[in-house]
Hints:
Layout: E1 3-10, E2 13-21, H1 22-32, H2 38-49, E3 55-62, E4 67-73
Antiparallel strand pairs: 1-2, 1-4, 3-4
Helix pairs in contact: 1-2
Amino acid sequence: xxxxxxxxxxxxxxxxxxxxxxxxxxxxxxxxxxxxxxxxxxxxxxxxxxxxxxxxxxxxxxxxxxxxxxxxxx
Length: 74
């Protein structure tokens, strides 16, 4: 079963990692995507809908806070 993996980094050190089944991720993303730009939200929605996709789908940097979030399909 494919999963959406979300990793958060602070100062290039991994802070948190969570993995959720794609089916559940589709439900959760409905509220989460409001915090992303329209382009990133569309990319994420399309990626969890594509059954053949695997690997990093979105890598977001917040340079001022030295934070980074990586979304992957595993």
